[in-house]
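Anyone able to model this chain together with S-adenosylmethionine?
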Amino acid sequence: MEKVHLTGEKATLLITLHAKAEESRLPGSLLQDHHAAEAVARIDHDFSALGMRRDEMIGLAMRAYTLDAWVREFIAAHRGATVLHLGCGLDSRVFRVAPPPEVSWFDVDYPDVIALRRALYPSRPGYQLLGSPMSDLGWLSRIPTDRPVLVVAEGLFLYLAEDEVLSLLRAVATQFPSGEIAFDAYSRMGLALASRNRMFRATGAVMRWSLDNPLDLEAQVPGLRLRDEQWVYEESDGAQWARFSWPARAAVWLMRRVAPLRRLGRLLRYRY
Ligand SMILES: C[S@@+](CC[C@H](N)C(=O)[O-])C[C@H]1O[C@@H](n2cnc3c(N)ncnc32)[C@H](O)[C@@H]1O
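re: yes, here you go
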């Protein structure tokens, strides 16, 4: 069993990991993240104390599912690409997506989080781990500059200061020849609501960065072009909404019809 001593924004990884592990056990699981379930079983921590609701598990699985799909698309279009999975926490994306060995995949997070990952997950061809805070971009110099690079960050940018987000995006857009950057972003109101979530508040993590208009980033980061913007609970057939409780279904019904509510939480994909 692995002991965990995580606080603040690092401790939030336990929430998203638990969500994915539990969603994989629900009937009709979307994410089927059995790797997360196996990791949770090896961590000495009382996850039940989170009191996570089924709707929250499904919602977090939906966010991860869309980002997985965007990663798969990029890899299929760019054989031999590089993937930078930032703020990876204990997320098992590299195992869910299972890229071919010619893809170079880097999981990046704080050094102690990366040490925990090493203890919990196996290695695989083309897969590397980098321990660094996002405030220090020195690790970027270790990434090859001759291939398209996809940056994927789930549940990370909201914890960074605005200048950290912009420095990171500018460095990526200047250093690499081309690629995409995919992440979740919250409007100012969305961030205020997320900060009040009892599970995240209990970690002491501070949520900092919000984005009301995705086009603002085009102006702030030269070379960046918005490719996709979608509501975090977007889906064409409503199959996941049908799994929600009645109150959550009512909230989704309302959000679908009121644009400012859909902007509370979005998944964004930019090209550079
Ligand atoms: C909500 S968790 C998300 C983890 C993972 N992406 C997932 O979806 O399961 C936030 C992650 O961002 C990492 N993180 C937050 N701020 C960071 C920073 N300044 N530098 C490096 N990692 C950071 C935390 O350590 C944590 O693993």
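The chain has a mean pLDDT of 95.
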